[in-house]
Amino acid sequence: MEAETRIADLFSLYSAFPLLASASFGDDSLASSGSSGSLSLTIDSFSTEPVLLQKAFDSIFCDNESSWEAAQNVSRNSREEDGLANTTSLGYGEILPEAVFTIMGEIKEVHGLERGGVVYDLGSGSGRVLFAACLAHDFRLSKGIEYIESLHNAALRNLNRWKKHDVVTPEDGGPVDRVQFDFVQGDITKITTFTLSPAPTVVFCHATLFDNDLFACVQLISENSPPGTFFVMITKPLRTGLVTGIETLSYKQYRMSWGHATVYLQRRMKPIE
Ligand SMILES: C[S@@+](CC[C@H](N)C(=O)[O-])C[C@H]1O[C@@H](n2cnc3c(N)ncnc32)[C@H](O)[C@@H]1O
């Protein structure tokens, strides 16, 4: 039943948005293996049109358990059980996928982004930011670091949803390697020498509730990142200037799961050529 619903969703998606996806979904494998079958979702061109990407996102994360509301509950229950309810930095809220698509569109169209690359989310929650980013660009690696174990597990369950769809992302003629996801349960403040490895291309950080010590670690991570690395900072911008080597490219208000917030698109400065 669940598989039938998904097929119906994708049928309407493909017929409504023929540019988004070619009709190469694995009907046969689905028919033979039921809801555990894979369903290919081939994105022909990385559309920078948020509405189209939202449709694709919704077709993968279509059940209640994969919603941001569910992730928020997972986080709240976990913090209450572990006596962490008053640890402000662990508060939960999400950037909505549409904002991720728009920001990725700006990075690609205004500033330029080569194929491949590595995207991070520092405090990755249920992983939805990384899945949205990987619909908008063909990253080769997508890495999330999340402190709360139950949220980390929610990200792994979302990864299973993604894998069921067998997302293929051809661009410039021909399929590219599928993106690899690496969700790590860990602490941002414990990242060795505050250096992300492998080197990042784009880093998301929803720092709204991060305390000063945690944010100082994010600042160090940014300053240790290669020139040209993009930072998508929610609410709290990185310190800019010649000393930090960080510049602000733009800032704009976006809708979050919890209200509106300013998103700062920043970059590690490139040397003058
Ligand atoms: C506001 S939520 C953002 C969730 C997701 N990145 C998004 O924007 O949709 C911040 C996340 O950072 C996590 N977090 C807070 N402190 C952390 C730390 N020291 N190490 C890793 N994750 C942390 C929280 O548990 C929470 O899931």
Automatic annotation (TrEMBL):
It is an enzyme of class 2 (transferase). InterPro entries: DOT1_dom, H3-K79_meTrfase, SAM-dependent_MTases_sf. SUPFAM superfamilies: S-adenosyl-L-methionine-dependent methyltransferases. Residues 86-228 form the DOT1 domain. Its EC number is 2.1.1.360. It catalyses: L-lysyl(79)-[histone H3] + 3 S-adenosyl-L-methionine = N(6),N(6),N(6)-trimethyl-L-lysyl(79)-[histone H3] + 3 S-adenosyl-L-homocysteine + 3 H(+). Gene3D superfamilies: Vaccinia Virus protein VP39. Keywords: Chromatin regulator. One of its GO terms (molecular function) is histone H3K79 trimethyltransferase activity. GO terms for biological process: regulation of cell cycle. This is Histone-lysine N-methyltransferase, H3 lysine-79 specific.
